[in-house]
Amino acid sequence: MSLGMLALLQNRGLASLLQSSYKMTLLRNNVGIFTEQGGTIGWMVNNEGIVVVDTQFANSAAHVIEELKKKSAKPFRYLINTHHHGDHTGGNIVFKGIADHVIAHANCLINHRAVAAVQKSEDKQLFADTVFNKQWKTKLGSERINAQHFGAGHTNGDAVIHFENANIAHMGDLMFNRRFPFIDRNAGANISSWIMVLDKTLAKYDSDTLFIFGHSLDPEKVTGKKEDIKAMQNYLEKLLLFVGNQKKAGKSKEEILKATVIPGAEDFKGQGIERSLTAAYDELSS
After folding, report:
1. So what's the pLDDT on residue 263?
2. Distance CA 91, CA 172 (A)
3. In the chain, alpha helices (H)
C-alpha cells in the first residue's frame, strides 16, 4: 500500500464505509473480538488485567476501551500490535496513559515510525515501547500469551498473537478470509515467504485452535479454523503460479492486471485483485 493510501485508510470518513457499528463478541476463556472499522481487534480480560490486540482507529479504540471497562476495573496491561498499518494502529494513541506497555515486532515499530514520519503524524501515534525479533511471551493471571514472528508475509513485521490457554491465535493481516489481500512490498512483504509463514502456523497450532483474521469478505466470518489458513495459503500459491505462467507466456504487466479471478482460488473475491497481481508480478520480476 502506498503511503498515500495509508493516509486515506486513517481517514474516518473512509473508515466509516468499512463497518457502521461496533460489536463485542466473547469467543472463549475470557478472550474475544471487537469489530467496527478496519482490522479485527482481539481482547482478553481476567483477574490480573486486560490485554488488547490492535486498535483500528481512534473512535473505535475509544469504544473498545469503554466496553472493556464495563467488564473489568483491572488495568490495561498490554496493547499488542500485529503489524503497523493504520487500520490496526490508528487507535493506539487513545491507549496513551492507559496501557502499561505496547508490544510489537521490531520491524513493525520501524515501519510504524517511517509511515508516521512521512505523514508528519508522529503526535497522533503511540509507538511500541517493547519490541521482539522472534518471540515475546508473558503470563497474565491464568493466561499465557505468546507473540510469534514467523517471517515476512503481509509485511516484514507481522506477529501471530496466541492466547495459549484459550487456544486462540490472532493472525492480523496474515489472514484475509476469502478476500483479496493487500501485500505491502514497501514494508517488506513477500508472497513466497508468506506461504512458508502459513506453513509454520499450521504446524505450530493444533486442530482446536481458533484463529482471528484481520479481514474477511464476509464481515461476520473474522474467525475460523485451519482450513481457512489453508485456503489463504492456496490463494497465495495460485497467485504466484498464475502470474508466473502469464509472464512465461509473454503477457505484459498491463495484460496480467486485467485478470478478475485467480484460477484455482476462485473463492477469493472482492476488490483489490490488482494489488495482488501487481505484488506478484513485481516479486517475480525482482
Report:
1. 98
2. 15
3. 3-9, 12-18, 58-71, 86-89, 106-119, 191-204, 226-248, 253-256, 273-285
Q: Which amino acid is at 228?
A: D
Determine how many CB atoms are found less than 10 A away from the CB of residue 39. Answer: 29
Per-residue pLDDT of 202-239, as tens digits, reads: 999 999 999 999 999 999 999 999 999 999 999 999 99
Residue range 109-157, pLDDT digits in tens? 999 999 999 999 999 999 999 999 999 999 999 999 999 999 999 999 9
C-alpha triplet 114, 160, 186: angle, nearest 5°: 30
Give CA–CA dist 33/6, Å, rounded.
Answer: 23
Residue 190, number of CB atoms within 10 A of its CB: 20
φ, ψ dihedrals at 40, nearest 5°:
-55, 130
Here the cell at position 190 is: 513477500
Q: Which of 181, 191, 1 is nearest to 85 (CA)?
A: 1
Can you tell me the distance from the alpha carbon of 246 to that of 262, in angstroms, rounded to the nearest whole number? 12
